[in-house]
């Protein structure tokens, strides 16, 4: 039987009947042992920053990593998000809209911003030296839509590519949620399980490590800074940036309406188009998902910030070279 890794996003809702144990719950023990206290403290500190993420076809989890509402999750959790918009539900049951900012398909990561002026609890990343095989780990997420579910285990292995392996029980819906150490720090972003038949759980789960996630965030800095133009400019589009939701929050205030935008969401590591905003200049030009930005005015592009910095000067014209399949196309953009 062929063994394969399967993604954890929930494809269909499952109703679960939970029996009542009111009598047992009322008889609280006088004290807890040390391990129990650590587990309860990790959950108490981290769970408020764990969210459920929903698209029309799937449900997953995510971790809030900034007070302004920046969320890290899996790329496969938000892959089917229409126009990059998802629903985010916090531990209190409050629902927000979220805007996909950028993705890293290779490492199955995505960043989403919550469209709200609220301030949010956060989870911090562990340093590389605090990620060790044998340490106790904790997974929090929404398996089968059951938000706030905690499972525990150990860190079983660190692969050569940095991926983490754990025996903490992961199930569909845990995708994108945090794998934590005993200090409540995120050591990884849960993403998949190993399954012999595509259905059962063998107790072998995988997570993208915190150092890789932090590198992704660093690469994406030009796209996720609250007061930075998060998409390529276009003077014909009179609206907020494609990668930042409209909101009254001062930290993510919309840019001036005379600042142009192109209307795309980019993968910052490859400069590949992830999403083309409807009715934007990019859609009028015919840009498509999967197109890769090669050069600006003849100069090779290696970072989205090059485009942001150039177009922040409000030039009158730009020449953008785009790769699609095996061909190159030059677009002359007049502002």
Top keywords for this entry?
335 residues, six-stranded antiparallel beta barrel, alpha+beta, 33% strand, elongated, 2 domains
Write up this protein.
The protein is of the alpha+beta class and 335 residues long. It has two domains: 1-13 and 27-219, Thrombin, subunit H (Beta Barrel), CATH 2.40.10; 228-334, PDZ domain (Pdz3 Domain). Helices cover 15% and strands 33% of the residues. A six-stranded antiparallel barrel has the order 8-9-10-13-12-11. A six-stranded antiparallel beta barrel has the order 2-3-4-7-6-5. The N and C termini lie far apart (59 Å). Mean pLDDT is 80; it is low at 9-26 and 227-258.
Please render the helix and strand layout as text.
Blueprint: E1 4-7, H1 22-26, H2 34-46, E2 50-54, E3 59-64, E4 70-73, H3 75-78, E5 85-89, E6 95-104, E7 109-114, E8 136-141, E9 149-158, E10 164-166, E11 178-180, E12 186-195, E13 205-209, H4 210-219, H5 221-224, E14 264-267, E15 272-276, H6 281-285, E16 292-296, E17 299-300, H7 304-311, E18 317-324, E19 327-334
Antiparallel strand pairs: 1-12, 2-3, 2-5, 3-4, 4-7, 5-6, 6-7, 8-9, 8-11, 9-10, 10-13, 11-12, 12-13, 14-15, 16-17, 16-18, 18-19
Tell me briefly what this model is:
The chain is α+β, with helices and mostly antiparallel strands and 335 residues long. It has seven helices and 19 strands.
Shape: elongated
Q: How much of the residues is beta strand, in percent?
A: 25-35%
How would you spell out the order of helices and strands? EHHEEEHEEEEEEEEEHHEEHEEHEE
CATH architectural group of the largest domain? Beta Barrel
Number of DSSP strands? 19
The overall pLDDT, averaged over residues, is 80
Helix % is: 10-25%
Number of domains: 2
Do you know the CATH topology of the largest domain?
Thrombin, subunit H
How are strands sequenced across the largest beta sheet?
8-9-10-13-12-11
Main structural class: alpha+beta
């Amino acid at each position: 039987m062929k063994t394969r890794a399967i993604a954890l996003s929930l494809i269909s809702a499952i109703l679960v009947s939970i029996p009542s144990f009111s009598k047992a719950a009322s008889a609280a023990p006088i004290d807890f042992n040390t391990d129990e206290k650590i587990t309860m403290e990790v959950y108490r500190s981290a769970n408020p920053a764990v969210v459920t993420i929903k698209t029309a076809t799937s449900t997953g989890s995510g971790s809030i990593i900034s007070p302004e509402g920046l969320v890290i999750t899996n790329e496969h959790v938000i892959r089917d998000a229409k126009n990059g918009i998802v629903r985010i539900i916090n531990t209190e049951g409050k629902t927000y809209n979220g805007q996909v900012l950028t993705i890293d398909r290779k490492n199955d990561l995505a960043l989403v911003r919550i469209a709200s002026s609220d301030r949010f609890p956060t989870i911090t990343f562990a340093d590389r030296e605090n990620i060790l095989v044998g340490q106790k780990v904790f997974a929090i997420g929404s398996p089968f839509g059951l938000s706030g579910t905690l499972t525990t285990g150990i860190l079983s292995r660190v692969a050569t590519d940095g991926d983490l392996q754990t025996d903490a029980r992961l199930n569909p819906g845990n995708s994108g949620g945090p794998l934590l150490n005993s200090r409540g720090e995120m050591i990884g972003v849960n993403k998949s399980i190993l399954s012999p038949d595509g259905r059962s759980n063998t107790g072998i789960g995988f997570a993208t490590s915190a150092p890789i996630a932090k590198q992704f965030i660093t690469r994406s800095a030009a796209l996720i800074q609250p007061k930075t133009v998060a998409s390529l400019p276009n003077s014909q589009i009179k609206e907020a940036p494609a990668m930042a939701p409209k909101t009254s929050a001062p930290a993510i205030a919309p840019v001036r309406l005379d600042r142009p935008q192109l209307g795309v969401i980019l993968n910052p590591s490859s400069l590949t188009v992830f999403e083309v905003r409807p009715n934007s200049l990019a859609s009028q030009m015919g840009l498509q998902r999967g197109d890769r930005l090669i050069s600006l005015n003849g100069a090779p592009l290696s970072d989205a910030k090059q485009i942001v910095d150039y177009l922040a000067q409000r030039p009158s014209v730009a020449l953008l070279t785009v790769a699609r399949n095996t061909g190159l196309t030059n677009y002359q953009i007049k502002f």
